[in-house]
Amino acid sequence: MPTPDPGPRGTDRWQHVARAAGLLDADGTVRPTIFAEMSALAARTGALNLGQGFPDVDGPASVARAAADAIAAGANQYPPGPGIPALREAIAAHQERRYGLCPDPDSEVLVTAGATEALAATVLALAGPGDEVLTLEPFYDAYAAVIAMAGATHTTAPLRATPDGFRLDAQALAAAFTDRTRLVLLNTPHNPTGAVLTREELAVVADLATRHDALVVTDEVYEHLVLDADRAHVPIATLPGMAERTLTVSSAGKTFSFTGWKIGWVSGPAALVDAVRTVKQFLTYVSGAPFQPAVAFALQDEGVAAWVEGLVASLAHRRDLLCEGLTAAGFTVARPQGTYFVLADAAPLGFDDGARFCRELPALAGVVGVPVGAFTHTGSAADDALRSWVRFTFVKREEVLVEAVARLQALRR
Ligand SMILES: *Cc1c(COP(=O)(O)O)cnc(C)c1O
């Protein structure tokens, strides 16, 4: 059971964040993130970089043109604090069209600098010292850092590898709740495991959150990237009684392959969105003036919707290609249902340490991945269980993946 640790004060404060993010060595030196280390390794060795998860092909030209047109038309000064009305209306319409949620664009939708700022402002607004923020584990690395910035305590519930991909452990989740759990920071489709949480799994979360009177913050940046026809993205806000205690976060980066634009948003009850806006206005105030109208266009244009469908079909194909290649090379693979990541276990290849394996992989096979340890707390149950696991991305061009798969066969024994 983690004890509440508000961390050091004064000019060592940042070390608390570095430690939470796993970047502080025992002797006090600060390491670069494993993503930076692995990308540098790829650049140095010429290995194919399946570590960092960003697309190597940009999104629709029509959307890029909309941003260029907005610059030419003068959308170059501070936009309104909550985001331009056209984008807030497009977000509200998207939530209604896809999920039957009807946020009021004026009071229940806030535009942010990517999902990252939406999550940071939300945690900073709603949790502090003495409070616990509960996430799944493994978790997106920014969660640990921002929970530390807030001075709150990070608790976790493990996802477990099963023949049906990674799944929620309902018993472990129940055990992770305490009377100090203020926020459940959920993520579905889930990075790094690729799990798309089922309605049944979400009902377990909803029931526990309600019984412990915790709010739910749900990171749904991969909401459109569900890769199996028999799975669907279910926002937890659509479960009975949950809209009133849920803040839903998403962004344009993953859906439209414009990760550098950093247009995100959060929607939910007006009082909660107000709380987030209060903090957000002093983080960035506003951002992305010309990108906001472009994303409003992207959310509503039928041609763009067809492009996203094409992306999903292509990602499903690329997932299959990489999963089959990893399996043939000797890994145990947990087939992802969403996102653009796959987790693979290197233990059958004789490696019990994923970090060491990743450092050796460029020399062994000319490929770079990221150890799942980058997404766990050192020494946790999930950290132990996933010690030999590695994350690879398949959001790279097919010929890159074909070459990576061919190279990985060098690992077969
Ligand atoms: C990429 C990612 C984000 C960050 O989204 P931005 O819109 O780029 O800030 C947040 N959560 C998860 C799980 C992600 O993979």
From TrEMBL:
One of its GO terms (cellular component) is cytoplasm. Residues 48-407 form the Aminotransferase class I/classII large domain. Keywords: Aminotransferase, Pyridoxal phosphate, Transferase. InterPro entries: Aminotransferase_I/II_large, Kynurenine-oxoglutarate_AT, PyrdxlP-dep_Trfase, PyrdxlP-dep_Trfase_major, PyrdxlP-dep_Trfase_small. Its cofactor is pyridoxal 5'-phosphate. Gene3D superfamilies: Aspartate Aminotransferase, domain 1, Type I PLP-dependent aspartate aminotransferase-like (Major domain). The keyword Thylakoid does not apply. Transmembrane segments: none annotated. One of its GO terms (molecular function) is pyridoxal phosphate binding. It comes from the Bacteria. The keyword Heme does not apply. Belongs to the class-I pyridoxal-phosphate-dependent aminotransferase family. This is Aminotransferase. It comes from Cellulomonas soli. The lineage of its organism: Bacteria, Bacillati, Actinomycetota, Actinomycetes, Micrococcales.
